[in-house]
Design a protein that fits this description.
293 residues; alpha/beta; five-stranded parallel sheet; four-stranded antiparallel sheet; flat
Length: 293
């Protein structure tokens, strides 16, 4: 069906597993495949043979084309092909984090959500997060607020969702300062390579920049989800050791129904899976009211 639709319309097919992308959409249907950057070797001559991948490129996202061998970069070439393609396949994390697949000029008319039975988990995982004390200290984030857990506490505690949102926004501001510092340092440092198992200054800075970029993306996704709909959240946070639980900040949606429509949209959307079971219950879980089955 999806392959047939791609003959008359532009189609983006989303998968959770790399094997489904490569075997079904790549080999069987002739789609242009784009994996995450960690699946592509870095082709810079100084990094070949060092188990370096495109996700640790010393040139930050948006600047990868400045690499002197960018014309040979497998990731950039696959990305360019996917952006031009009328039939492409991406994975869910890439689609959720990247901006270009949703830009009107590049967005496909048909969005096919394969392995759709996993959508509730994919959405709640993307919209929520957990931050432990190690991460908090690493990035000098504010002390965790005291928030007492699930929805049963919503009536006795002053707006835990608002408290969580305020902490996340404050933490994001700090992360942004770290990111700008690392980015500036990355642009001014010479290109170094790994020396045995020890990071050079350049590689260490690049990896920390990537880590900062990833955690900022996660924080931003949760803040956006909270702003879009503050209903049905599990929020628990403590700055102190709580029995066997170390200091932790947890903020997760209890359901995908308020968030699905904010992440996926197209002229035509097709959800596919052999293991959905009761489609009416499944549609309700995603907040889908109008559909054909």
């Amino acid at each position: 069906l999806i392959s047939a639709l791609a003959t008359d319309s532009s189609v983006t097919a989303l998968c959770r597993t790399k094997n489904l992308q490569a075997e079904n959409y790549g080999k069987s249907y002739g789609f242009d495949i784009l994996f995450g950057k960690a699946n592509y070797d870095c082709v810079h001559p100084l990094r070949i043979g060092l188990n370096a991948y495109a996700d640790t490129c010393p040139y930050a996202e948006g600047g990868m084309s400045k690499c002197p061998v960018s014309a040979n970069c497998d990731y950039l070439n696959a990305k360019k092909a996917a952006m031009r393609s009328k039939r492409r396949s991406l994975n869910y994390p890439y689609y959720l984090s990247a901006g270009w697949p949703k830009v009107p000029a590049l967005a496909s008319k048909t969005l096919a959500l394969d392995e759709a039975h996993e959508l509730p988990d994919i959405i709640t995982e993307w919209a929520g997060l957990e931050v432990n004390e190690k991460v908090r200290k690493k990035w000098d984030l504010p002390v965790f607020p005291i928030i007492s857990g699930s929805s049963k506490y919503l009536f006795i505690q002053s707006n835990p969702v608002s408290m969580a949102q305020n902490w996340l926004i404050e933490a994001l501001a700090i992360l942004n300062k770290h990111y700008n510092y690392l980015l500036n340092n990355n642009q001014n440092v010479a290109f170094f390579v790994l020396d045995d198992d020890n990071d050079s200054d350049g590689e260490s800075n690049t990896r920390k920049l990537k880590q900062c970029e990833n955690i900022m993306r996660k924080f931003d996704a949760t803040v956006s989800a909270l702003m879009n709909n503050p209903n049905d959240w599990y929020v628990k946070s403590s700055p102190h050791q709580d029995g066997f639980t170390p200091p932790m900040f947890t903020c997760k949606p209890l359901s995908a129904r308020y968030h699905f429509k904010n992440y996926f949209s197209a002229e035509t959307m097709i959800l596919m899976s052999a293991t959905i079971g009761d489609y009416a219950v499944f549609a309700e879980e995603l907040g889908i009211n109008a559909y054909e089955y």
